UniProtKB/TrEMBL annotation:
The lineage of its organism: Bacteria, Bacillati, Actinomycetota, Actinomycetes, Cryptosporangiales. InterPro entries: DUF6282, Metal_Hydrolase. This is DUF6282 family protein. It comes from the Bacteria. SUPFAM superfamilies: Metallo-dependent hydrolases. It comes from Cryptosporangium japonicum.
Length: 306
């Protein structure tokens, strides 16, 4: 049986649409979770569609350190690779020191708590979806609030560091209300590049909160992994993504892969599949490029606001 990528060779028109894509959600390794490819291999995979850049994400460690450790292999690799840090319990949670370290090492993103967020822990209370090859990680829940229920001093310092560095902040897997508070505090601190991850997966942010976030300048992310038939865990129809795009608008939307896991399609194969699906469903080529090339390049700091 042919895979989605092998079903037909990509057309010249599709390759033109995908040229220069920036993937802000690549789960290449190393990782305690099983990965299909490492960061160097991800760079070469990206070259198949002339990707402009890749941001590699780990739930557990500072990937800017990975990029520096792999600098010899990445020196001649075709697609530039960037890293950052997710503020989960493995790095001390909402930790200004870990944030400063990642920034000083060239990190381009600080992810809010993901696997340590209460919302994520609740969503995966049965342990599904996030297998670890390394056994128990002893994760603890991480909150952006202090004991009085206010945004904590450490959270505000993290946001100042992100603002001063001019890099991207995401809401991680926080619940909707906490993420909105996080982004409001970030906006007050001067953070400009902000992204909401997959609003209808794990975080389940409602429409009213999404509208408020967009008003703060937050971009709404949707992931190719959710819409690829080879990713059995989700498998949503293309029409669902099309409806999101038409409701929110391509100017507020980014599309990333959220791929790299063992057993799932390669990120570029998912771009090829879904790029054609969006064209076939009537999304204009210019709008697709807005979501995968221009908005993503802005968030990664490669361009000023589109």
């Amino acid at each position: 049986m042919a895979t989605t990528a092998e079903a037909s060779a990509p057309s010249a028109a599709l390759l033109k649409v995908l040229d220069g894509a920036v993937d802000l959600h690549c789960h290449s390794g190393p990782s305690p979770f099983p990965r299909r490819l490492d960061h160097v291999e991800a760079s070469y995979d990206g070259a198949r569609i002339n990707m402009r850049a890749i941001l590699v994400k780990s739930h557990h460690h500072n990937t800017a350190m990975d990029v520096l450790a792999m600098k010899t292999q990445l020196k001649d690799a075709p697609t530039p690779v960037y890293g950052g840090v997710a503020l989960n319990s493995e790095v001390g949670g909402i930790n200004p020191s870990a944030t400063a370290l990642a920034i000083n090492m060239g990190g381009r993103c600080v992810w809010g708590p993901t696997v340590s967020a209460g919302q994520h822990i609740c969503a995966h209370s049965d342990g599904d979806g996030f297998p670890s090859a390394g056994g128990e990680l002893y994760e603890k829940e991480v909150s952006i609030y202090d004991e009085s229920g206010e945004i904590s001093a450490d959270t505000r310092l993290v946001l100042k560091l992100v603002a001063d560095a001019g890099i991207m902040l995401t809401g991680g897997h926080l619940d909707g209300d906490s993420m909105l508070a996080f982004f409001k505090a970030a906006s007050e601190a001067g953070v400009k590049r902000m992204m909401l991850h997959h609003p209808d997966y794990i975080v389940n942010v409602n429409d009213a909160i999404i509208e408020e976030m967009i008003g703060l300048g937050v971009f709404v992310e949707h992931d190719l992994a959710m819409y690829n038939p080879e990713v059995k865990a989700v498998g949503w129809p293309t029409e669902k993504l099309v409806n999101w795009i038409r409701t929110i608008g391509p100017e507020h939307t980014v599309i990333n892969s959220d791929l790299g896991q063992k057993g799932n399609p390669l990120p570029v194969d998912a771009y090829l599949y879904m790029g054609q699906q969006l064209l076939d469903h009537g999304i204009p080529a210019a709008d697709i490029r807005q979501m995968i090339c221009r908005n993503t390049a802005y968030l990664l700091g490669l361009e000023e606001k589109p």
